[in-house]
UniProtKB/TrEMBL annotation:
Organism this protein belongs to: Nocardioides astragali
Name of the featured protein: Phosphotransferase family protein
InterPro entries listed in its UniProt record: AGP_Transferase (IPR051678), Aminoglycoside_PTrfase (IPR002575), Kinase-like_dom_sf (IPR011009)
Gene3D superfamilies referenced in this protein's UniProt entry, alphabetically: 3.90.1200.10
Pfam families, A to Z: APH
UniProt cross-references to PANTHER family, sorted A to Z: AMINOGLYCOSIDE PHOSPHOTRANSFERASE-RELATED-RELATED
Aminoglycoside phosphotransferase domain ranges (all copies): 24-232
Superkingdom as given in the UniProt entry: Bacteria
């Protein structure tokens, strides 16, 4: 149960002006995201951690996003500004984070210029040096997921991927990560990135894991050619060779835990994930 009236009243107190209108933004997987307009005419965004399993960890996630946005203030990364935090859900009964609303909208089409801009923005993010490192990244490809999916056309590729992840991870240079970087968490205006949003998973880890997550999202939503093009673009931008271990880890992380349905409901998305994992195994692992 969420106390929406309580959440909006709290937001109005933080903003110093009552909230006159709210509407739900699309695309939120973990949360209900509300665009607010207050009596001063200003707009803001309210995150409410309504969806499980993230709701259970709402205090941790909203606190991390609040801290990250404070760290990013004054950097070249166009992140929202944190305006208020109710991590324990005193007002809304779920973790809540109030932040500024940035201009721009998500893109519906991807081309080479978009991929280059994404790679350049990722480099900008990775250049951030927090005074205190964020937590070490968490793998989303935990061992319980290492089950060949029934919908695959490439079972041997999945087995090969699981075997790779069962071995030692390569060494890496600890890097500031968005950890959920991808085209769906970018805002655009006039052909430029005007916002990088959704900072609840910020971590320290290998740079190629961020790049891998962007690539998997592109593979699932757009196609494997776009994903492969982004990998090459990031390799050129970062001056580093593609690291298959981290690319495979991210792709496997999109499998559901045992007993749960896939996060993608459309068969075409599962097919593209299957094609991407197979492509990684065949072309990146040899």
């Amino acid at each position: 149960m969420v106390d929406l009236d309580g959440a909006l009243a709290w937001a109005g107190d933080v903003l110093g002006a009552p909230v006159l209108a709210s509407r739900e933004l699309t695309g939120g997987l973990t949360s209900t995201m509300l665009a607010l307009r207050d009596a001063s005419g200003a707009e803001s965004v309210l995150r409410l951690m309504t969806n499980e399993p993230w709701r259970t960890y709402g205090a941790e996630l909203t606190t991390r996003e609040h801290h990250t946005q404070n760290v990013l203030a004054g950097t070249a990364v166009p992140a929202p500004t944190s305006l208020g935090l109710d991590a324990d859900g005193v007002a809304a009964e779920v973790g809540a984070h109030l932040m500024s609303r940035l201009p721009g909208e998500p893109l519906t089409a991807v081309d080479d210029g978009v991929l280059r801009a994404m790679a350049e923005m990722l480099a900008t993010i990775h250049a951030v040096r927090p005074a205190e490192p964020f937590r070490t990244f968490q793998s989303w490809a935990w061992e319980a997921k290492w089950v060949v999916p029934g919908w695959t056309r490439h079972p041997e590729s999945w087995r090969h991927a699981f075997a790779l992840l069962g071995g030692p991870a390569p060494a890496y240079e600890p890097t500031f990560l968005h950890r959920d970087f991808g085209h769906r968490n970018l805002l655009w205006q006039g052909g430029m990135i005007t916002g990088v949003v959704d900072w609840v998973e910020t971590s320290t880890g290998p740079a190629w894991l961020d790049a891998g997550h962007a690539a998997t999202n592109l593979a699932v939503c757009v196609g494997t050619e776009a994903a492969d093009a982004f990998v090459e673009c990031w390799a050129a931008t970062s001056g580093t060779a593609a690291e298959p271990y981290w690319l495979v880890m991210d792709a496997v992380g999109f499998l559901p835990p045992p007993g749960r349905p896939p996060m993608f409901s459309h068969p075409a998305e599962l097919e593209r994930l299957d094609e991407w994992l197979d492509r990684l195994v065949r072309t990146r692992l040899g």
